[in-house]
Design goal:
Elements lengths: L2 H13 L9 H13 L3 E5 L8 E5 L23 E4 L2 E4 L6
Antiparallel strand pairs: 1-2, 3-4
Length: 97
């Protein structure tokens, strides 16, 4: 499997996990598990509201770089069907993407 194919597969796995705002525990657990399987140090910073905190992943104890991203989605991804449209990933039109 090429690196590009693996990235598409990883995106599809994550995007299919239901994680609307304040209910992104399943997404956090997915990210935590993925990072731990790769051998990273993982922690979670508590936040007010919601069922998951900020996931913190350290590479070699941390450092000067930071990658930040939202784990929640604006709308439900239940039933998400991802397809390729030339160089893009799109939904079938019935769900968000």
């Amino acid at each position: 499997m090429s690196c590009d194919e693996r990235l598409v597969e990883l995106f599809a796995e994550a995007a299919a996990i239901e994680g609307v705002s304040s209910r992104e525990r399943a997404v956090a657990d997915h990210v935590i598990g993925f990072a731990k399987r790769l051998g990273f140090e993982v922690g979670e910073q508590p936040v007010d509201g919601g069922d998951a905190g900020n996931v913190l992943v350290k590479h070699h104890g941390g450092g000067e770089s930071l990658l930040a991203s939202h784990m929640d989605t604006a709308r439900s991804t239940a039933g998400l069907e991802i397809t390729r449209n030339e160089d893009r990933l799109v939904s079938d039109g019935t769900t968000v993407l």
